[in-house]
Amino acid sequence: MPEEDRRIEEVLEEEESGAIERSVMRLRDRIIRRRKKERKRQRRGVKGPAPKLRRKDLSSDSGEINKPEKKAAGKQNEDRPRKWVSVGWLSDAVINNFKKLTLQPWTDAEASQYEKGDLLELFDKPPSSGGTKLGVVRITQTPFRIRTDELTKSDLSAMGFDYLKAFMIKSPGGQTASEIEEEFKNKPSKLWAVHFKVEQLIDPKAPVRGSVRVEG
């Protein structure tokens, strides 16, 4: 073999040997780094290999797992009112904490959608008729049907009649509270009794629209 060819072959062998050596060194460095990480985790009391998190399990901003956030959002949604109730011309009695019972002319199907613990949006009249939202109330017992001639003095008081009498407030039809009571007795009808407590009231005088005050 000519001297020049032999020299070329030696150079190629040296280069190949150097490439192999560099690959071995890189592999060695990776193994050392991995062992260091494992020792650190063991000192912290973490056993086993580090868990692998999928990209879709992480939020794009902070790297926090999204699933707990979804559960928390779900819990919040459960505490939001999804139904409503209107109290008509007796709105002031509710706002001044004199009314905690309302009678509703529901059908059986409508009444079946309400139960104890439900949060309801409170309106002065139905939203479809342009009603104004007054706040949020919670049903304190499952609604039940009652005849108006069976209403007790306690029931009438909870309906806000004491407030009407104290301030001599009349219905839109010009009836006093006493006259409405007489009509309940003389012309009885069956209505659904809904007992509630006020959770929040929207303050119409608040400088920021939508501000609420929480009732204890």
Give a short summary of the structure.
The protein is an alpha+beta fold. It is built from seven helices and seven strands, in the order ααβαβαβββαααββ. It has helices spanning 3-43, 67-78, 91-95, 108-111, 153-158, 161-166, 177-186; strands at residues 83-86, 101-104, 119-123, 133-139, 144-147, 190-202, 212-214.
Structure characteristics:
Sulfate adenylyltransferase; 216 residues; single chain; 7 helices; rod-shaped; 7 strands; alpha+beta
Structural class, judged by helices and strands? alpha+beta
What is the CATH C-level name of the largest domain? Answer: Alpha Beta
Distance between the termini: 104 Å
Helical stretch tally: 7
| Share of helix, binned | 25-40%
Portion in beta strands: 15-25%
Secondary-structure element order, N to C: HHEHEHEEEHHHEE
Largest sheet: 7 strands, mixed
Low-confidence stretches: 55-76
Overall pLDDT score:
79
Please tally the β strands and state the result: 7
* Rg value: 37 Å
Describe this structure in words.
With 216 residues, the protein is an alpha+beta fold. It folds into two domains: 1-51; 81-214, Sulfate adenylyltransferase (Roll). 39% of the residues lie in helices and 19% in strands. The protein contains seven helices and seven strands, in the order ααβαβαβββαααββ. Strands 1, 2, 3, 4, 5, 6 and 7 form a seven-stranded mixed beta sheet that branches.
